[in-house]
Amino acid sequence: KEFCQNRNYSIKSPETVSQKVEEIRERLDHARNTEKELVQWVEKELERLDYSSELDTPRLTHHDIHNSTRKGQNNLFIIDWEFAEFSYSPLEDLADILIDEQLSKEQSEFIIDRYRNLTKIELNDSVLKENKKLKILYQLSWSLVENSKLRENQKTPKKYLKYPKERKEKFNSIEK
Asked: In this structure, is the dihedral angle defined by the CA atoms of residues 154, 155, 161 and 163, taken in order, positive or negative?
C-alpha cells in the first residue's frame, strides 16, 4: 500500500471473498434474461460453496493471471500486472494457475507447496477446491454478462458463447 501511495497509484480497498460473491450475484442479475438455466445453476453452486477462507491481512494479487502467464522451459512467468489489487483471497491467483495451466501433478504440487511456504496460508485440498470453484463461478458470471451484452447487440462471436459451457465443464471436473 505504501509503495502505491509513494508513486501516486490508485488503490482500491481490499476485496473480501464475500464481496466477490456479491459481485457474482450482481452479474447474474444482468444475465438472467438471456441465460436463465446457467444463471440458476451458478446460483445453486454458489449456495453450496464454503467460501469462508478470508484472511486477516489483504495481500497483493495479480487478479487476471489466467491471461498473463507464459511458460518457459521449466518456468512459469507472470506478466501484465495492470489489474493487480489487494485482496483477502490471494488464493484466486493460485486457483487460476491450477485451473487453466497444463501442469503435471508434480508441477502443481511444487507450486502449491511453494505458495504455502511463501504465504504461510493454510492450504489443504478442500480449501483449494473451493477456491477453484469460486474462481470459475466468477469467470462464468463475467462471461454471462458479456454474452448478454453481445446478444443485445446481435454481434455474438461464437467463441464467447462457448466460454460459459467450458467454464461449467471445468467446474464439474473439479468435483471428480
From this structure: negative
**Rounded Cα gap, residues 68 and 148, in angstroms:** 26
Name the pTM for this structure. 0.78
Q: Residue 42: its pLDDT value, please?
A: 92
Return mean pLDDT, the chain: 79
Give which of 8, 27, 15 is closest to 58, Cα–Cα.
15
Q: With cut-offs at 50, 70 and 90, classify the pLDDT of residue 171.
A: very high
CB 15 within 8 A of CB 88: yes
Q: Rounded distance, CA 65 to CA 30, Å?
A: 25
Residue located via cell numbers 505458495: 115
**Under 8 Å between Cβ of 81 and 53:** no
Find cell 518457459 and name the residue.
Answer: 72
